[in-house]
């Protein structure tokens, strides 16, 4: 199967950070993906550049349509499924309504997996500005009773990106906040970022101390959000290919009528958005 990663941030060909990101994502996905799963990361040339803008709702919300257009173009280009690589699950429900290929996101997938691993999960963000929105997301998923608490390591933007080169400082910050969540009652820990999670799982720059990556804190497991996302999506694609239903088209994911599509033609199109792909 062929999977498209729908990314939220601008990526430039040849950029050192993008090249490193592709390496660490490839290593992370290769831990669990099916041998025949081909993964392609789709980047936009228009949108938020860097990390800082994602912590403010007005900027983040205006950027979210990039993910929508990425997913729509992936279906048009023959992909079997789309994985949204941002923990905030931008436009997840809107995209599922728009396309006929399965769509998963690392946030929803990680929370659902965590709910099977223990009675209460705790979420660790990279910024305190993400916490309130994530509480709303947890409630929308019907998982508020399973949430112990949400805390943040409050890592500055440059350090967040730097963790995929050397995760030493991020790991220590994560462990400190993780212990606070464990005291709050968390039995499972979720790193709420598509950069933080692989940095912990693979521990670049810290493999002498963490040869298998950081997979638990004081016996409490850490969810590998990228692995959860790809396995959820692979399952959804397999269901669809077998002829089973993978989604309900009743109410929430009911698809627009031709009349609705015609009336929304101006907002459904956006000629600013251009994409390029990098194979993992």
Query: Strand pairing plus helix content: what structural class?
Result: alpha/beta
Query: Unreliable runs, pLDDT <50, ≥5 residues?
Result: none
Radius of gyration: 18 Å
Order of helices and strands: EHEHHEHEHEHEHHEHEEHHHE
| Strand numbers in spatial order across the main sheet | 4-3-1-2-10
Describe this structure in words.
This protein has about 280 residues and is an alpha/beta fold. The chain folds into two domains: about 1-105 and about 230-280, Rossmann fold (3-Layer(aba) Sandwich), CATH 3.40.50.1860; about 110-225, Rossmann fold, CATH 3.40.50. Helix content is about 45%, strand content about 15%. It contains twelve helices and ten strands. The strands form three sheets. The chain has a five-stranded mixed β-sheet with strand order 4-3-1-2-10, sandwiched between helices. It has a three-stranded parallel β-sheet with strand order 6-5-7, sandwiched between helices. A hairpin with a 2-residue loop joins strand 8 (about 215) and strand 9 (about 220). The two termini are about 15 Å apart.
């Amino acid at each position: 199967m062929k999977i498209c990663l729908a990314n939220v941030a601008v990526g430039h060909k040849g950029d050192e950070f993008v090249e490193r990101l592709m390496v660490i994502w490839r290593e992370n996905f290769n831990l669990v993906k099916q041998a025949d799963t081909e993964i392609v990361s789709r980047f936009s040339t228009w949108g938020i550049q860097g990390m800082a803008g994602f912590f403010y709702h007005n900027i983040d919300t205006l950027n979210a349509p990039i993910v929508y257009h990425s997913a729509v173009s992936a279906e048009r280009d023959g992909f079997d499924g789309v994985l949204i690589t941002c923990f905030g699950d931008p436009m997840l429900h809107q995209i599922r309504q728009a396309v006929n290929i399965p769509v998963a996101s690392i946030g929803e997938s990680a929370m659902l997996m965590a709910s099977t691993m223990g009675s209460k999960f705790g979420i660790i963000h990279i910024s305190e500005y993400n916490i309130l929105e994530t509480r709303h997301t947890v409630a929308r998923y019907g998982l508020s009773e399973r949430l112990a608490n949400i805390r943040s390591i409050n890592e500055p933007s440059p350090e967040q990106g730097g963790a995929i080169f050397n995760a030493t400082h991020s790991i220590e910050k994560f462990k400190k906040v993780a212990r606070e969540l464990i005291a709050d009652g968390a039995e499972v820990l979720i790193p709420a970022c598509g950069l933080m999670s692989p940095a912990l799982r693979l521990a670049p720059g810290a493999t002498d101390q963490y040869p298998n990556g950081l997979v638990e804190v004081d016996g409490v497991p850490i969810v590998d959000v990228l692995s959860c996302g790809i396995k959820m999506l692979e399952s959804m694609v397999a269901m669809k290919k077998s002829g089973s239903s993978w989604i309900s088209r009743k109410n929430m994911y009911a698809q627009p009528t031709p009349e609705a599509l015609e009336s929304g033609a101006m907002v459904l199109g956006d000629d600013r958005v251009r994409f390029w792909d990098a194979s993992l």
